[in-house]
Specification:
The complex is a heterodimer. By secondary structure, chain A is α+β, with helices and mostly antiparallel strands. In chain A, 21% of the residues lie in helices and 29% in strands. By secondary structure, chain B is mainly β. Classes of the chains: A alpha+beta, B mainly beta.
Chain lengths: 1001, 91
């Protein structure tokens, strides 16, 4: 630490606690309370990064979230390293390691800096213009461009830190803990509002906290002393919740806000462990008071980006708050009064102020007079035309401004300095206000956008509302807050306030130089490296909209979202194009205000908590029996059960054969189940399914197809009539929730007169399906007293039964074409019944099979899977299922659409079977089908929807949708693949047992 | 993120609801008697206004009830919520 850069009489930094940290591999020291930026400055390190495009050396420029240059990589642990963090916001802790970004091999010697010498060749949109042709060379260009543009390194391993989400509800949320925010929070709390005050710093008070100046006094105390007393009274209020280190990220409609609280980022490395790192607060506030303050503007002049050029107010904070001198010989350059406060602070701390360069004519405000009394030299009506020094500023060149401010006159003077403070006035932080949908207005006298209209219950107070003088801030904040909360807090009515008032204002967006504009580098956006010249070029090239200029030049598009650069860009555009700034408008500020970590966004929803996992009641058995699992929606379904190192293909072939040869057993618990009751249940089913339901006998089952109102197949399943007014509907696994929701919609909104009640019972019942020629024998062992004859218990019927005192609903239905039973049991008994079935089936070599075999078996029978063979464009007619459309019913969902001109077209895509010429060739699902292969372009007639090798038929089979497919039966078609063309024939969709003999085998 | 006053449950976060498009479109009682154009009018044509719009919403992760909402799409202000079958309280 360079001792001579620290002053010792500082109240905010604990100079007894020394902290060691590493920057670019070098061990340095700071104090408790420092930020990384203040500690670096105390070590006389200004140069911390290279600029994005020209790789120019860049230094710390601000002291807060608006920092464009001091963007560093934190840490080097592959799971915890964090890129693009702002050194000005990182609180120093023991063990901190940080490094510069965007430089190679090092920040002091960067090869990319050659770009700076070629900069006349790198104008706005250089990359767009140069690398746009030939188009297929982009891949090559991109590699080099990405390599040279560095934006930090992403972690390569999963984040070990813990993040959290919480909700917060309050009457009044105050954002910003500066003087106006503190007064507002106290007023709200005092009037019994449940109040929350948040601030992104570790301590409340804002800039007034260290404002100790004769020109700013309240009730005869310095403003900072008065404010400290105010802050000390806040803890009297039990209904005031204060959150520091909490940054408001987003302000959405209905006063819904997101704030990130940093809980451990400031702790020593060893203290961080096992603690929640960041918490995202989801806040719903009845009223919101925005008191986010203002950002100081830079000035735009030639070479205004050198390390050592710092915002004037930041220099003040570094000396008054952190006790750090940003230089030993500091010059200040301004267009307003606030730089004089910095000059006085520096002077009071014993730092030499070379001179103040002010673009205004001589002015006599209180604070200017005080600065003059201290003997500070002031260059009136002057500007800096150039700065010198490569890795750090070493001198500035000053010239007089012409009367109209567009040119420089008289002779040039050179002034040695090691730091230049710049102040271009203030920009209210209206980001949150605009995020919430608020509209801005423009104030011409000092060129600021201010909050205007909002539809939400909110106000902006203090400098974010355009009050920059202490007395205005206090008076207006108090009045606005009282009015907003409909209270009358007179605590602040009789304050005696001394406040210097700015008398003269002057603004020049782009300051003139003695060199022609093209030979200068007046930087606008420091992070994205765009200059005033780039903006002017964009206008010359015909861009008019501010949003287009922004994208073309990338001004304001860096991670700081143009917090420093936007106003000047707007000003220069307005000036050049000859329009008023108020009419030009601003670009949109989008959340988050400062970047959020992915960790904070996802919170606890990582790893196994990323999504819900649904397991069937029989899941453990599948695990014990080494099943491979498939994700079906949120369900884990047994996919296949490999035996002795079988691969999936072999396992499925074995399972499929066993199910048809003897017996198979499937866990079908995931099928959606909806319990339907009420005196109009039959009528309801009539309306939602395409076929007729009124005549279905009690104890019988029926397959149904459900359409959307547009006539397209939506879902299918078997529904059983349990009693007169009681049905059990099954849906596809994936469609269950949507079907229920759709049925509810019709019941509540279209047919409220129907007496029908729907209940989802998917999770209440487990379903064991046993199929195959021996399934009947197995069931008769389990339920000996049940007559299983075709006469008493035919296909598509249902019986209640007991399996060892466990109540079951047994349905004789089949999705495989085999003689088959589905046993529904209360979930808690499902595994036990499954085991009993398995035990009883052992003598028949009962084989558990998974979803893959189920798919294969149904494909052999040509049964569709809604969602695999249909895609929302298939009508029942397209599926060749005309038989399921009732001709008698007057209406059902989708009926009218079945004879729209488009749905009756004969050349629609229709479901067909496909057989390959070579029976061993298996088609790829999704493969395209064509009729000809010679003439290009080839018309795509359809695609393969399901494809398997059938062990029972000993050949490859497939289902497909093909244009006009019904009429093409027997036709030869082609499936062109990457390396070959496969010859196929269109067939019927049923490949096995066309006569359905096996159902009753 | 809206705060929606479900007519059955009271104020709840928007994440509990799902939107169901334009309200007060009545399913024709005799669809078979409609021409293709008339049926298409019911099936496809929706207004999507910038301004005050009548919408259907479902308290999907709550009471599962459908209800109507009058919302200004230009500023997301909800002017009224009312039950299915009720007349809109605002014209």
């Amino acid at each position: 630490m360079s001792k001579n850069l620290r002053i010792t009489n500082n109240k905010f930094i604990d100079q007894t606690t020394r902290i060691s940290f590493k920057f670019d591999g070098k061990t340095l020291y700071g104090f408790k309370g420092d930020t990384l930026a203040s500690a670096l400055l105390a070590n006389n390190i200004h140069l911390v990064g290279r600029s994005f495009k020209y790789h120019r050396p860049r230094g710390i420029m601000t002291c807060g979230s608006e920092e464009p240059n001091a963007i560093v990589q934190l840490g080097n642990d592959p799971s915890m390293t964090e890129p693009n963090t702002r050194a000005t916001e990182i609180e120093l802790y023991e063990g901190l390691e940080a490094s510069s970004q965007n430089c190679w091999p090092s920040v002091k010697f960067d090869i990319g800096a050659v770009n700076n010498f070629f900069s006349p060749l790198l104008p706005a949109a250089f990359y767009y213009k140069t690398f746009m042709w030939p188009a297929n060379f982009w891949k090559l260009y991109e590699y080099f461009i990405r390599k040279s543009a560095g934006l930090g390194k992403s972690p390569t391993e999963p984040d070990k830190d813990i993040y959290d989400h919480r909700y917060l509800h309050c009457d009044v949320l105050v954002v910003g803990g500066g003087i106006s925010g503190i007064m507002a929070a106290k007023t709200a709390a005092k009037n019994n509002f449940n109040t929350v005050l948040i601030d992104d710093k570790n301590i409340l008070g804002g800039n007034t906290l260290f404002q100790q100046n004769e020109c700013f006094k309240i009730n005869n105390s310095y403003s900072n002393e008065w404010l400290k007393k105010e802050i000390s009274t806040l803890n009297l209020f039990k209904n005031l919740n204060i959150k520091t280190r909490t940054s408001l990220a987003a302000y959405h409609s209905y006063n819904y806000l997101l704030a990130r609280e940093n809980l451990t980022d400031h702790l020593d490395f060893n203290e961080k462990k096992n603690k929640i790192r960041q918490r995202l607060w989801k806040i719903r506030a009845k009223k919101v008071i925005i008191a986010t303050g203002a950002i100081e503007r830079p000035l735009i002049f030639n070479n205004n980006d050198r390390p050592g050029i710092i915002l004037s107010s930041s220099i003040k904070k570094y000396i008054d708050y952190y006790g750090v001198k940003c230089g030993q010989k500091i010059s200040l350059f301004t267009n307003n009064d606030s730089a004089y406060e910095t000059a006085i602070s520096l002077s009071n701390s014993g730092v030499k102020v070379n001179s103040l360069i002010d673009i205004r004519d001589k002015t006599n405000s209180l604070i200017v007079t005080q600065a003059e009394k201290l003997g500070i030299k002031i260059h009136w009506k002057s500007t800096v035309v150039n700065t010198n020094g490569y890795k750090k500023i070493n001198s500035i060149e000053i010239m007089k401004l012409s009367d109209d401010g567009t040119a420089v006159v008289e002779s040039k003077t050179k002034e040695q300095c090691d730091c230049l403070g710049i102040s271009g006035g203030w920009t209210p932080r209206v980001h949150l206000f605009t995020q919430s949908g608020g509209k801005l207005k423009f104030r011409d006298e000092d060129n600021v956008f201010l909050p205007d209209k909002s539809d939400l219950d909110q106000i902006s107070i203090g400098s974010c509302n355009g009050d920059f003088e202490l007395d205005d801030v206090i008076k207006n904040s108090v009045n606005l807050t009282n009015k907003f909360l409909k209270v009358n807090n007179n605590d602040y009515e009789k304050l005696e306030i001394i406040s210097s008032k700015e008398i003269d204002k002057k603004n020049i967006w782009l300051l003139p130089s003695d060199k022609p504009l093209g030979k200068t580098k007046p930087f606008l956006d420091f992070q994205n490296d765009s200059t005033a010249n780039d903006v002017k070029l964009a206008l010359r090239e015909g861009f008019k909209s501010i949003e287009h200029v922004k994208r073309y030049t990338t001004t304001g598009m860096a991670t700081d979202q143009g917090k420093l650069s936007n106003m000047h860009a707007l000003g220069i555009i307005a000036e050049t194009a000859g329009v008023k700034m108020g009419e030009l408008g601003t670009t949109t500020f989008r959340p988050p205000y400062t970047p959020l970590t992915f960790g904070a966004i996802v919170g606890r929803n990582v790893g196994k908590f990323f999504d819900i996992t649904r397991k069937t009641p029989i899941h453990d058995w599948h695990v014990e029996n080494k099943a491979e699992f498939e994700n079906v929606g949120q369900w884990k379904r047994a996919w296949y059960y490999p035996k002795d190192n079988e691969n999936m293909y072999d396992a499925v072939q074995r399972e499929s054969k066993a199910a048809r040869d003897s017996a198979g057993i499937l866990d079908a618990s995931t099928l959606g189940k909806i319990d339907i009751q009420g005196s109009d249940a039959s009528e309801f089913l009539n309306r939602v399914y395409t076929n007729a339901w009124s005549k279905l006998e009690i104890g019988k089952c029926r397959y149904g197809l459900m359409l959307n109102e547009d006539g397209m197949v939506y879902d299918d399943g078997v529904t059983t009539r349990l009693s007169e007014n009681h049905y059990l509907m099954t849906t596809t696994t994936g469609g269950a929730a949507n079907v229920l929701s759709k049925l509810e919609d019709y019941l509540q909104t279209e047919w409220p007169e129907l007496d029908v009640y729907l209940t989802s019972v998917t999770d209440h019942y487990g379903t064991v399906s046993i199929c195959g020629p021996n399934s009947k024998k197995i069931l008769s062992k389990l339920i000996p007293d049940l007559d299983l004859s075709d006469k008493k218990f035919p296909h598509m019927s249902f019986k209640s039964a007991l399996i060892d005192n466990i109540k079951c609903r047994v349905m004789r239905i089949s999705f495989t074409g085999e003689h088959s039973y589905e046993i529904n049991i209360q979930s808690s008994y499902a595994k036990s019944v499954w085991e009993k079935c398995f035990e009883a089936g052992k003598e028949f070599n009962i084989t558990p099979y998974g979803t893959e075999t189920m798919h294969l078996l149904r494909a052999e029978k040509g049964f569709i899977i809604a969602g695999q063979d249909t895609d929302g464009t298939m009508t029942p007619v397209d599926l060749q299922m005309d038989w399921i459309i009732s001709k008698k019913k007057y209406d059902f969902i989708g009926k009218r659409s079945l004879y729209r001109s488009d749905t009756i077209r004969e050349d629609r895509k229709q479901l067909v079977g496909l057989l390959t010429e070579n029976p061993n060739e298996i088609l790829e699902e999704g493969a395209q089908i064509v009729a000809k292969t010679n003439k290009k372009p080839i018309e795509m007639l359809g695609h393969v929807t399901s494809s398997y090798f059938s062990p029972n038929l000993n050949k490859s089979i497939a289902l497909a949708v093909v244009k006009n497919g019904k009429k093409l039966k027997g036709q030869k078609m082609f499936v062109p693949m990457k390396n070959k063309t496969i010859n196929v024939t269109i067939t019927d969709t049923v490949f096995l047992d066309k006569e359905n003999k096996r159902l009753n085998a | 993120m809206f705060l929606i006053n479900c007519p059955y449950c009271g104020e709840r976060d928007q994440s509990e609801f799902s939107a169901g498009g334009e309200a007060h479109i009545i399913r024709p009682k005799q669809p078979t008697e409609l021409s293709d154009d008339q049926w298409a009018e019911y099936l496809f044509m929706r207004k999507n206004i910038k301004g005050v719009q009548f919408e259907r919403w479902n308290h999907a992760h709550g009471c599962r009830k459908w209800f109507n909402m009058v919302r200004d799409t230009s500023n997301d202000k909800i002017h009224a919520v009312y039950k299915m079958g009720e007349k809109p309280p605002i014209k």
